[in-house]
Amino acid sequence: NAGVTQTPKFRILKIGQSMTLQCAQDMNHNYMYWYRQDPGMGLKLIYYSVGAGITDKGEVPNGYNVSRSTTEDFPLRLELAAPSQTSVYFCASSLVHFDVRTNYGYTFGSGTRLTVV
Amino acid sequence: GQQLNQSPQSMFIQEGEDVSMNCTSSSIFNTWLWYKQDPGEGPVLLIALYKAGELTSNGRLTAQFGITRKDSFLNISASIPSDVGIYFCAGRSGTGNQFYFGTGTSLTVIP
């Protein structure tokens, strides 16, 4: 059981380039999330999805796009990379949105470290 | 967005010592989570709290949901080297879809 898999683990982009961060989960989870983590800061929610075909903005969505064509995959797209997007990106998933009856939390991937120069 | 403040920012302790850290918010939350992040990895859920005053343990870890609903506490007893990492709190108000994360407490355990 692989859990949440993120690729690539590291990437260096030039300003203005575009790229897609991949995220896949094999747990049949409905909910998926993208967070960014800046040094000394907590996780900030970029986008989330409650199921295939449904996405919504989080706290810091500007400069990013997402799609959810399947339950398993939730790619994050950067169209015009900027230095402010240098960060560590985490994808997470959950079966339901933290059902208090079952204590389902988020399962996080191991992260993608992105540097924009 | 919601502001969660964690303190202390970092701790350096001797193996065997107890550890206490806390998290405060500007808003009332109805769910508090505590995560641990090892270097190069994603956060892993340690403890979840659902109501004010609740005290929940997970091995040597104990967390409490503050009675004001604006804070939470995490204690680690008899620390060991593998406790090293960054501990994050996260909270949610109402039934919204977003958890807000604290800035983290970095723990170093000296053998």
Comma- or semicolon-separated keywords:
heterodimer; A: 117 residues; mainly beta; seven-stranded mixed β-sheet; four-stranded antiparallel β-sheet; 11 strands; 0% helix; 48% strand; B: 111 residues; six-stranded mixed β-sheet; five-stranded antiparallel β-sheet; 54% strand
Can you walk through the features of this model?
The complex is a heterodimer of chains A (117) and B (111). Chain A has 117 residues and is an all-beta fold. Helix content of chain A is 0%, strand content 48%. In chain A, strands 2, 4, 5, 6, 9, 10 and 11 form a seven-stranded mixed sheet that branches. A four-stranded antiparallel sheet of chain A has the order 1-3-8-7, with no helix packed on it. In chain A, strand 5 (43-51) and strand 6 form a beta hairpin. Chain A starts with a strand and ends with a strand. Chain B has 111 residues and is mainly β. Helices cover 0% and strands 54% of the residues of chain B. In chain B, strands 2, 4, 5, 9, 10 and 11 form a six-stranded mixed sheet that branches. Chain B has a five-stranded antiparallel sheet with strand order 1-3-8-7-6, with no helix packed on it. Chain B is globular, with a radius of gyration of 13 Å. The model of chain B has no long low-confidence stretch (mean pLDDT 91). Chain A binds chain B through residues 4, 35, 40-45, 48, 50, 56, 58-59, 90, 92, 97-98, 100, 103, 105-106, 108-111, and chain B through 1, 4, 6, 9, 31, 33, 40-45, 48, 50, 88, 90, 92, 97-104.
